[in-house]
Amino acid sequence: MTPANESYHLNVNGDKHQVRDAWVGESLLFVLRERLGMPGTKGACEQGECGSCTVIMDGAAVCSCLVMAATAQDAVIITVEGLGRDDALSEVQQAFISQGAVQCGFCTPGLIVAVTHLLDNNPLPSELEVKEAISGNICRCTGYSRIFAAVRSAALARQVDAQ
Amino acid sequence: MSTITREQTRPHIDQRQVLGSSAMRPDGIPKVTGDFAFSSDLSSEHMLWGATLRSPHPYARIVNIDLSAAWKISGVETIITAQDVPGKSTYGLISSDQPVFAQDIVRYMGEPIAAVAADHPETCRRALAAIQITYEILTPLVDPEMAILETTSPIHPDGNIIRQQRINCGDPTATGPYVVEGTYVIGMQDQAFLGLEAALAIPDSGGHGVELFVATQWLHEDQSQIAACLNLPKQNIRLTLSGVGGAFGAREDISLQVHCCLLALRTGRPVKMQYGREESFFGHVHRHPASIWMRHHADTEGNIVKIEARMIFDGGAYASTSPAVLINGITHAQGPYACSNAIVEGYAVRTNNPPCGAMRGFGVVQACFAHEGQMDKLAALISISPIEIRLRNAMKTGDKLITGQVVHSVAPVERCIRETDAIPLPEPLEDNPDLLSIPGGSGRTAQRSHILRGIGWGVAIKNLMYSEGFDDYATARCTLSNGIVSLKFATAEVGQGFVTLAQQIARSVLGVDDVVLEPISTSIGSAGSTSASRQTWMSGGAIDGACRLVRERLFEHVGRRHGIDPICLVIDGTDVLDTVGLSRFSVAEESQGIVIDQTFEHHHQPTEELDENGQGNCHVAFAFVAHRVVVDVDPELGLVKVIQVATAQDVGRVLNPLAAIGQIEGGIVQGLGLAVMEEIILDHGKVLNPSFTDYLLPTSLDAPDVVAIMIEEPEPQAPLGAKGIGEPPCISVTPAIVAAIRAATGTDLWRVPVRPQDICLRS
Q1: In terms of Cα–Cα distance, which of B620, B621, B600 is closest to B505?
Q2: Phi and psi for B740 in degrees, rounded to 5?
Q3: Exposure b/e, B96-109, CB count within 10 A at least 16 = b
Q4: Is A45's Cβ below 8 Å from some Cβ in B?
Q5: Residue B307 in 3-state DSSP?
Q6: What is the pLDDT of residue B2?
Q7: 3-state SS class at B221
């Protein structure tokens, strides 16, 4: 690939990353995965329908497949790789494991990011608020019930931690 | 809040994570941190990207292929077509009828014609766009009924009928005072796993072999088919399972395996292929659409006297597993009900529609939609409840099927129905409900007062493992040394949690806590396919067998060291216990400095092919399930909200409650998808909706409350007492949802998915 190549920087999980000689048409999803070595963010539809590629960008949960990476230069980007703290799992990550919300795991990183974003903004969401908040994240394995349980469990764990 | 501790927010985790506990997944932590490597996450030094050119036409003659412009694009390393396939030009699971690349004819939209390897996915896309193909467009055969007619010219050298089979059972003249009949139509569902097809092929130096990292359901079958197409010895094709993002049947056939290996061997460089969502819709088989006519004859009490059925499965352009799907369909025509007389005629046919094959519940999903519709019609005709008609006819252990096979499996059909019925119904819809909780989800919908509620039933029987004489054995190796067990198997972990179960078995049988899982690869014997609800039984049986062999050797070793007859020794917790002298020896200590290594193959009892009258012991075992569904329907917009699914499932024995409920809830939501939203829409063989924008999948707002009961009556034939549980949840929930919509609206609905216009534009 030679045409229209660019170099630019992205701020991901608190670190500044240089993207060298990239085709400007590349999505943030592609650049995270293939250029910055962060494959935790998954792609499954390329249309913003499934939420597997969810990242937090300037405080909003977005589908990284719909963001052109070169336009995200000034944004603060958080991916699933940036969520655990000090090598420990976050409450949301722990809850997904213990409540059985993980089967094949392909939707999991996007859901972990989406649920983290939800609880950051609404610490005790109602059942319908949870369902609406993650309705853009398709899971094909679990039928969602264990994911709802994980969100409840994580919300509770965060309350306990905050005490 | 001060009384809540952190631990209370988590379920109780058994300290030893043995069989029966909700043991944690060994891949759980990497999956929540993003570290788990799915096949699409793999990369290699000097790697190229591969991509496939596919036909835009369902049926056409290839007049000319011009690669010259594509070759000139900078970054393109190779382009291959049919003439570059060194070995067998076709592949297939049952019959080898599908070309690696189409040569003269394309038989379905999306059929591969060429593949390229290049330095960047975008270079691949440009190269594919530069390939010029001249087609002579032919009129596609898309009507399965036409395919059966001998006057229709064959679209494939193997003919248009993939398989035809009858079942003639008992007295063909038998009848009764009550007769109901109907035609039932099932649309084409997609497995829609999230982790798209992807693989990385690394060629051996010298080009005489290749290592393939791939997301698949059956490593050894892939290996055989790839080797034949590459004209290389099987042992030179080494497969390792990479992370699989769901499967549901769609990874049982070859998709990109041969193409990826060929590109790697051609270029001498690692090649990664990865489908996008649109290509995935064309790159794997789907659930067979079917048209099923049934007529039931019953006596005055509603007992079934005879069933007649004609079942047509559209296999699409290539056979895939159509022969097995057909046999599942016709042999399950009676459902979980006793029946002495039957005339069933089944066809799996070839058309220019997309190829169809395995999907969760294959063949039985279709049959169940028909027989459950019939049961509701029969109940209505003789004025008894949907529950009563099913209870009166419920099959029992020892009953003879319409194939002549006796059901030796535990068959708690009546119990499934009664326990489902005992689950409390949900509360009525509130007077002022949140809009998110009514049909239509977050969108504006009908007046509250117009919303209708209905209840429907579905009950199913599902065969377990492969049928018709196929010995789908499974292999496992167990090594015990220094207190650590290491397990090796080729069982595809596709998300179902077999890796968790494998560790639980070893902990239970051998009294160890540390169980290491070796890479899942072809460097051990086959485990068969992760399909047909078979791995807990088959690969679970293989691991159990290997661990028991190791345990025998351990007991001999302990017996020799301590002067005890090994026959007196058992595992108790993490100790070897002498049941006579009552002394204890830690397994960890006793296994220091020794290596015990055993391999075991588990075979199920033999089965046989059906004869010309459809008679024979063709299936291994059966599982049963009942579903009761409550729906709310907006009759003006034709929107459906599934409120609650109550279910009691015959599971034999619960080995991991958390994993089991996950299978049940997940299967139910896939069955919900088929009932009210999921369908690949075709127009003269062309797929109109190959994307997640247009192919609708259930979201969190569509998910019903699932109340599940697991009926534990250990299955004597099963090595762990446990039946496979993956498929039953998605089978009878679909007809139960449709029955509930019929009950709510009074509308005749005999086709799935039920579309809004089916409800609101019909009286």
Answers
A1: B600
A2: -65, -40
A3: bbbbbbbeebbbbb
A4: yes
A5: strand
A6: 33
A7: helix
Question: Is A66 part of the contact surface with chain B (CB cutoff 8 Å)?
Answer: no
The residue of B14, B21, B31, B654 whose CB has the most chain A CBs within 10 angstroms, and thus the best one to mutate to test that interface, is B31
Give the amino acid at B327: I
pLDDT digits (tens, 9 = 90+) for B52-91: 999 999 999 999 999 999 999 999 999 999 999 999 999 9
Kindly report the nearest CA distance between residue A162 and chain B, in angstroms.
11
Exposure string for B171-201, b = 16+ CB within 10 A, e = fewer: eeeebbebbbebebebbbbbbbbbbbbbbbb
**pLDDT < 50 stretches in chain B:** 1-13
> With an 8 Å Cβ cutoff, are A100 and B192 in contact?
no
Q: Which residues of A touch B196 (CB under 8 A)?
A: 43-44
Contacts of B610-614 with CB under 8 Å at 24 or more apart are B610/B165, B610/B167, B610/B327, B610/B331, B610/B403, B610/B468, B612/B166, B613/B166, B613/B167, B613/B168, B613/B169, B614/B165, B614/B166, B614/B167, B614/B168, B614/B169, B614/B330, B614/B331, B614/B344, B614/B402, B614/B403
- Indicate yes or no: CB of B10 within 8 angstroms of CB of A145: no
Tokens, residue B594: 């020794």
What does the mean pLDDT of chain A come to?
A: 94
In the block, tokens 């990183």 appear at A109
Question: Whose CA is closest to B395, among B460, B447, B458?
Answer: B460
Question: Could you tell me if A18 and A44 are in contact, meaning their C-beta atoms sit under 8 angstroms apart?
Answer: no
- Out of A1, A100, A161, closest to residue B123 by CB: A1
Is B662–A100 a contact, with Cβ atoms under 8 angstroms apart?
A: yes
**Which chain A positions have a beta carbon within 8 Å of B27's beta carbon?**
102, 105
Rounded to 10 deg, the angle between the B733-745 and B364-381 helix axes is 40
Question: Which chain A residue is nearest to residue B244, measuring alpha carbons?
Answer: A104
Beta bridge partners of B633: B452, B640
Q: Is the pLDDT at A160 greater than 50, yes or no?
A: yes
Q: State whether residue A1 sits within 8 Å of chain B by CB.
A: yes
